[in-house]
């Protein structure tokens, strides 16, 4: 009987950041020996509080900020030694609106493509504008567009020269929920075409919805990089809450080994566990021991910590570890 083996090629690295640091003239160190690899074709979400170094990191990779030390390679091109080639494969959507208010949508997107030495390709630009629901606005001056439409124009500009890597720095900040979801759909479509997306966001649900992997940066240092599903499984807590038939004054001694938390009013017990097979079996034992201890409950529910909970805990713990 022959066995069939499925070989999956490892994902290639398209962006490599090695020992990257940035110290400004004031002495402020915005980045501290950052090491990071981004895989070709993934959506990578970079999370961090305000001032963590997210925008400085993006600016350095895109050649807008000079590094103090370290190396950056994009699609095999060194960002310093081969700046033009490296920058040509990068698209950047900044936080701030940076367009000429009097230009039309078509002119500003066409001009950006020309800046990267690309020959005119009206067909590609039409495809981009249609994907962003901007085609009907192509002849409108940018000053006449809504804030959400202006943000779409920034994305169109970034895609005009057909980059392999797209940086989105807070792309949905300040836009309505409908536009956010439209942009999520656009990102998925870009990923399907092979574009690598690095996303910074304050919206934890955005990272949870979109990202393949998540990196957390705090005070200029990478705290953690992990597959999203692995991160949620390893660090996400699950809790079983039991609503009691009668309040308890304290947790019975026979149940002390479970680390149960009794609510302030004594009306509920909470058991925290991970999602391993042994822990799930422990729940069965807990319920049996509750019965033996004459603790009756009328209802139970389970909850799982979100990516936001994990993010807050990681950043808090990192800050507490500092002298």
Descriptors:
4-stranded antiparallel beta sheet; 6-stranded mixed beta sheet; single chain; 10 helices; alpha/beta; 34% helix; 323 residues; disordered N terminus
In what range is the share of β-strand residues? 25-35%
Quick check: average pLDDT? 83
What order do the SSEs take from the amino end to the carboxyl end, as H and E? EEEHEEHEHHHEHEHEEHEEEHEH
Portion in helices: 25-40%
Given as residue ranges, the uncertain stretches (5+ residues, pLDDT < 50) are: 1-10
Cα shape: elongated
Architecture overview:
The chain has helices at residues 54-61, 83-88, 105-115, 122-131, 147-159, 177-192, 204-210, 228-235, 277-292, 307-320, and strands spanning 13-23, 29-39, 43-47, 69-74, 77-78, 90-93, 165-169, 196-200, 213-218, 221-227, 238-244, 261-262, 268-273, 297-304. It is α/β, with parallel strands linked by helices and 323 residues long. It has a 6-stranded mixed sheet, with helices on both faces. A 4-stranded antiparallel sheet has the order 2-1-4-5. It has a 4-stranded antiparallel sheet with strand order 12-13-11-14, with no helix packed on it. A hairpin with a 5-residue loop joins strand 12 and strand 13. The protein starts with 12 loop residues before the first strand and ends with a helix.
């Amino acid at each position: 009987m022959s066995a069939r083996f499925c070989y999956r090629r490892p994902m290639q690295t398209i962006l490599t950041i090695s020992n990257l640091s940035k110290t400004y003239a004031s002495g402020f160190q915005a980045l501290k020996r950052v090491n990071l690899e981004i895989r070709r074709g993934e959506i990578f979400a970079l999370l961090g509080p305000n001032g963590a170094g997210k925008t400085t990191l993006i600016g350095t990779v895109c050649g807008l900020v000079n590094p103090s030390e370290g190396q950056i390679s994009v699609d095999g091109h060194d960002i310093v030694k081969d700046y033009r080639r490296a920058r040509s494969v990068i698209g950047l959507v900044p936080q701030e609106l940076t367009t000429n208010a009097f230009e039309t949508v078509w002119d500003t997107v066409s001009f950006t493509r020309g800046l990267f030495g690309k020959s005119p390709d009206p067909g590609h630009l039409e495809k981009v504008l249609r994907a962003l629901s901007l085609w009907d606005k192509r002849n409108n001056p940018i000053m006449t567009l809504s804030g959400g439409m202006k943000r779409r124009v920034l994305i169109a500009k970034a895609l005009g020269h057909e980059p392999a890597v797209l940086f989105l720095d807070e792309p949905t900040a300040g836009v309505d929920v409908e536009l956010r979801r439209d942009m999520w759909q656009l990102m998925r479509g870009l990923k399907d075409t092979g574009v690598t997306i690095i996303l910074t966001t304050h919206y934890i649900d955005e990272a949870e919805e979109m990202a393949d992997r998540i990196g957390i940066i705090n005070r200029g240092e990478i705290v953690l990089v992990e597959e999203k599903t692995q991160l949620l499984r390893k660090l996400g807590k699950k809790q079983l809450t039991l609503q009691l038939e009668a309040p308890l004054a304290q947790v019975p001694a026979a149940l002390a080994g479970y680390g149960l938390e009794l609510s302030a009013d004594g009306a509920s017990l909470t058991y925290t566990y991970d999602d391993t097979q042994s822990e799930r079996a422990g729940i069965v034992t807990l319920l049996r021991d509750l019965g033996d201890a004459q603790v009756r409950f009328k209802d139970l529910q389970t909850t799982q910590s979100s990516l936001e909970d994990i993010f807050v805990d990681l950043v808090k713990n990192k800050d507490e570890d500092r002298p």
